[in-house]
Sequence to fold (452 residues):
Amino acid sequence: MKYPVSVRLSAVQYYLSRKGTLNETALLFGVGKSPLGRWIRAFRQQGEAGLEHRLSRTYTQDFRLGVIRYMMKHKCSSAEASAHFAIPNETLIQQWLKRYREGGAEALHPVKKGVSVPKAKSPPGSKPFCEMTYAELQEELEYLRAENAYPKKAESPERGKCPQGAAEKTKIVQSLLPAHRLVFLLRAARLARSSYYYNATKPAAETDRYAGIVRAIMAINVRHMGRYGYRRMTLALRKEGFTLNHKTVRKLMKQHGLTCHIRRKKYRSYMPGGGPASDNLLARNFRAEHSGMKWCTDVTEFRVGEHKLYLSVVQDMYSHEIVAWHISRSPSQRLVCKMLDEALKVNYRKKGLILHSDQGWHYKTLMWRAMLADAGVTQSMSRKGNCLDNAVMENFFSHLKAEMYHRKRYDSMEVLKRDVIDYINYYNNERISLKTGGVSPVEYRTQMEIQQ
Fold:
């Protein structure tokens, strides 16, 4: 398939910035490893120009021979030669090399394949001008005018640089019909008459049918800063009145280069120390019947140059809402205690609340446990070195870093702090969740409170 230039450029820049291997980059952007390798080589040789779509072309014998001689002189592979000469298909060069070894330079002469396009009885250049009649000269002049007009229309800015199929050629011919005869336009476009009439009578293209939906997808993508994949995009479209299959949404997003950022893998390790650990009362049962029955908490770290910023949050397992948070430049006891103090002030906390955490040293101190006991909150801890016991909290942090932190290079602690707070507010009030039926956490909690 033909990938948009924006997708090609994004994939190449992602790989060259060493954010992932070739396999990881190909999976992330939904492209094959072979075309990705060709794009990388073309980008290194020619920059962004090497990633642009090129019209199909016929290579002359001299050009093919020059490519072969370049390979022999520089001892390079067909892949390197394709990047140097901007030939999109390196297999073509391998065929030229094979033919050259078998038959020499004469074997490189272009051979026409397939059904030839019908030509007029008197093709241009078949007679010298001095031997043409007045009618033939008039016909030749009309053809040359049509031939001159066709490439100008085909290369207009609104059409962009993209491969021309029969449908695209038909549109160009139709736009030039008022000024030129059909027979000359078909000859200039190298388009068979049967192909022209087939596409001219064909129903509206699928892209026209989805034009309104594509505009809605782009608007949602801009509003959410490219954070929605095709599943969330499908739910968002349904809320705006568009009902269509998620596979169609995925196809449209891929055609227009609208890809979301996939969360990067995080290295997890266990740090021992502190007092005794509490029992794992949660036992990976992350479902709750009401808000304020089960909470989870953890601390994550952000880097800004040589400095670090720490975020402590509490999340409700029923609505997935971030109940409270606190940000500090030091992972001190004050960080988690201030966060807990804010969390205990919410009015929907229920009796018998369980607060689950990992075995971090903060959660084993006497101060932390005293605050929980005074509030009537039961403490639960993950097993030693088992981060999946606190998977809900790890999931939120991965969303936060993939959708906000890793998308921007931060040089200021204050800017990072502001963006973290903005994202938490966005996560609570705007970001829809598949687990809550396509509504935000706050909206889901409000709906459930009204029903109960």
Observations:
- Residues 115-122, 156-163, 265-271 have pLDDT under 50 and may be disordered.
- The longest helix spans residues 134-154.
